[in-house]
Amino acid sequence: MAGSSVEVGFTDHLNNPLLFAPEHFPSKIGGHPAWLNPSNLPSVPICTSCKEPLVFFAQIYAGLDRPSNGFHRMLYVFLCRRGSCYRDSKQPVRVFRSQLAADNPYYAVQPVPEGDADINEIGENKSFALSHNGYSNICGVCGCRAPLKCAKCHSAHYCSKSHQKLDWHDHKLRCKDPVTPASPPHYLTKSSLLFREFDIIIEREREKEDHVMDPEELARIQDASDAYNISGKDAESLSQEYGKDNDPTFTKFKERISRDPAQVLRYARHDAPLWPVSTGQCSAAPPCSTCNAPRTFEFQFLPTLLYMLGVGKEKDDMDWASVMVYTCSKDCEVEEYVEEFAWSQSYSDK
């Protein structure tokens, strides 16, 4: 991939959570999804291995240069947190695309200034309220569409029995009869199921000749053997298998990543992914399920992100080399949420 065609993403903290509201069109990691279109939300995706709901992982805003459908465009990635669900080339990762025209029922044509996100006026904004405070029956645990609700208070909504059971320990302390005023909406809650929430800052990838190594930054994502630190759990085994130039793909990956060692995202639409290792690569993405056009690569998450999220400390934590997202090459117009294609690359075929 040519450096000029690649953008890279870095995590950042936001002190004001309202900047993650839909009208600010955030690219972010973790927390609840900020749904672009508050109508016709997708059902929570289910892991084909453990049969539990997948967890929202990230969303990337990638609007198109056209006023029609696609002016606003968001991609949502869900995955399973269980490492065992990734074995035997299984793919517990799914991605959904949503698009809107510039002139739509939910957002003004002119963007909302960040200064208007007043933490003391939660829910005042129409689009934020529609997406998060119960009008669309949002699951208080994961933020997905919630067809179920608490039989007693009728104010807590859930996407599944699994999440209702998970939330009962906390909800029973505030569960009230329907005649009692409902508790505040759940859109700012931090369920233990969710990933830590970070903003994603996008920048152009550095050119090779402009790169200056930052030792302190690089040290955070390297282990003692100077292999790229994929995660605390697997760095040693990865170094043994790939760290001695046994795999030229891994060597190329390390060299390219060294330009921006803290990157967690690579965006290179219609280009090729940067594979970390030679095994477990996706040979071809299936065509678009809506218009049958070919799907092309759009972006990938790097294992640096697992390190920053603290994933890998538990025995059955997920541990992948990269997650690739492929989308419709024609940007076909959609009215609701449509599924695209995601591929998780593991370190080996085992």
Structural class given helices, strands, pairing?
alpha+beta
How many extended strands?
A: 13
Major beta sheet summary: 11 strands, antiparallel
| C-alpha geometry | globular
Helix share, percent: 10-25%
SSE string: EEEEEHEEHEHHHEEHEEE
Order of strands, main sheet, comes to 12-5-4-3-2-8-1-9-10-11-13
Share in β-strands: 15-25%
Separate helix tally: 6
Radius of gyration: 21 Å
Residue windows where pLDDT falls under 50 for at least 5 positions: 119-135, 181-188, 223-238
Q: Alpha-carbon distance between the termini? A: 29 Å
Mean pLDDT: 80
Characterise this structure.
The structure is a single chain. β6 and β7 form a beta hairpin. The chain is globular and about 65 Å long. It is built from 6 helices and 13 strands. The strands form 2 sheets. The protein has an 11-stranded antiparallel β-sheet with strand order 12-5-4-3-2-8-1-9-10-11-13, with no helix packed on it. It is of the alpha+beta class and 350 residues long.
